[in-house]
Amino acid sequence: MRLLYTLFICILFSLVSTGCRHGDRVSVPDEFKVAFIGDQGPSANAISVLELIRDEGANMVLHQGDFDYQDNPDQWMQKIDGILGADFPYFASIGNHDVVAWQGYQSKLKTRLDQLKGVSCSGDIGVNAACTYKGIFFVLSGIGTLGSAHIDYMQTALANSKAHWKICSWHKNQHLMQVGNKPDEVGWEAYETCRRAGAFIATGHHHSYSRTYLMSRFEQQVIASFSDHLTLKPGESFAFVSGLAGVSINTQLDGLGSNPWWASVYTSAENANYGALFCTFNPNRNETEANCYFKDIAGNIVDSFVLISELY
Question: Would you say residue 184 lies in a domain?
Fold first, then answer.
């Protein structure tokens, strides 16, 4: 009876607001596909990635910062509207190339959010915000780029969510959490905060794709498992960089040979192409599973893995 009552309240609340509280668990729809991208840019390659997202049947985009690199929010959003549609669920965290025109970008994101049904968001969108959409909980953070008190905000937001799936989204990295020359810009506590909550970490900044194995410590780079079936639970999670949305492709200065925590690396050294990471949640009506793959615009799948959530 309690479950039916909670479901009734959530349905009623969604009719009069943007969604249920973050503490209310909502089932993820069958075969719900999320695309993760960062570092987009204004080129034809960026358009091709958006078209790939459309053609793969994605239901939502989670963008880890750096939009059009032209400080033009109107033009950036028009491109998204033209390919994905004006009502397509599109969420984003601020990147360092978005700071100058952030007020405009944030306004566009808020307008889009206000038109979206079944979403609950609180906080400063893209900087210190917590959202639940279709049963997936995610923090949109500006850590390392803009704002303050990010760790405290993430800790509270993650603790208050009862979702099966928790995601931490920000733009920048720690040096050892990307395969290029980016310095420490986030701090280890952000990674460890999300790991302790069983949330996986989506970043951009380096224009490449890389994914860690399941980790039990990020700061000390302790690998929990080498399996391509990653079981997410409090204390164990993983991180990735998906920064191939169109602007350029960086070289690899670190990789599988020198640092063993990398499960997959895709840079100019591997003749990388632009693309996106896709995760399909609730496949075959299995709410605690997600099938993920990175696909480029030429149709190559360069990484695939399975997520299993024990956050229940």
Answer: yes
* pLDDT tens-digit series, residues 5-53: 333 334 333 333 333 444 556 789 999 999 999 999 999 999 999 999 9
Spatial distance between the Cα atoms of 33 and 27, rounded to a whole number of angstroms: 14
Tokens in use for 86?
Answer: 């004006």
- The domain tally of the chain equals 1
What is the CATH number for 284?
Answer: 3.60.21.10
Integer Rg of the chain from CA:
18
pLDDT of 192 higher than 90:
yes
Here the contacts of 21-25 (C-beta below 8 Å, separation 24 or greater) are 21/120, 22/120, 22/122, 22/130, 22/132, 22/137, 22/157, 22/160, 22/161, 22/162, 22/163, 23/160, 23/161, 23/162, 24/162, 25/135, 25/162, 25/163, 25/164
Read off the tokens for 110.
């808020």
Q: What is the pLDDT of residue 312?
A: 77
To 5 degrees, how large is the angle CA 173–CA 175–CA 180? 95
Entry field: residues in the chain: 312
d(CA 38, CA 204): 5
Q: Is 292 a domain residue?
A: yes
